[in-house]
Amino acid sequence: MDVETVTRRSRTPPLEVMLDVAAKLFEERGFRNVSMQDVADELGITKPTLYVHASTKTKILEGIFEWVMKEGEEALLDASQQPFPEEQLRVLLVRWTRAAASRQAYYHVFAAHMPDLPRASARYYMRWSAEVVERVRAMIIAGQRRGTFRSDVDPTVAAFSVVAIPNWTARWYKPGGKIGLDDVIDQQWRLIMGGLSSQA
């Protein structure tokens, strides 16, 4: 093995690159069918180099879940700084849809591989997911009290729908396709407000 090959295989990749590669492998083959060696091979590094980032495959899976949660929390923080419920929902839709489109494999893994997490971790992310719905539900209720949103719409149904729409974008959206992401977001927003707005 020449010096260049040794150097390449011992160079530690950025954490984000490692998560990207692992997420795509988990999505394509399933978490249980992917080994640490598979991830290392796909990255072009040795297993010991991979261990710089993660001691186990489960730690990598948790890293993917953490990324999704971090993006969700940052979007919720941005939304909370908007003065009106409809503006809060718009920020969430834009941020979540862009995140889902940029890291589609992460959202597939988040949706499919919760059972592969340790029990405590799975409970933690399940609680977080439920809390997200509750926070969106509070926005819907605030909009109903303000008269912006229809009072005959069940806020729980509306909250689950708002959360699901950007997440499902990760399932079907194809970058470079006939419809751009900005158009996707615009149409999603019009659908949401078509059902929620008291002025519709």
Task: Fill in the keyword field for this structure.
about 200 residues; mainly alpha; Arc Repressor Mutant, subunit A; Tetracycline Repressor, domain 2; disordered N terminus
* Total beta-strand segments: 0
At the fold tier of CATH, the topology name of the largest domain is: Tetracycline Repressor, domain 2
The SSE order reads HHHHHHHHHH
Number of domains: 2
Beta-strand proportion: under 5%
**CATH architectural grouping of the largest domain:** Orthogonal Bundle
Largest sheet report? none
In the CATH hierarchy, what is the class of the largest domain? Mainly Alpha
Helix content percent band: over 70%
Topology of helices and strands:
Blueprint: H1 3-10, H2 15-29, H3 36-43, H4 47-50, H5 57-80, H6 85-102, H7 104-112, H8 119-146, H9 155-172, H10 181-196
A few lines on this structure:
This protein is mainly α. The chain has helices spanning 3-10, 15-29, 36-43, 47-50, 57-80, 85-102, 104-112, 119-146, 155-172, 181-196. The chain has ten helices and no strands.
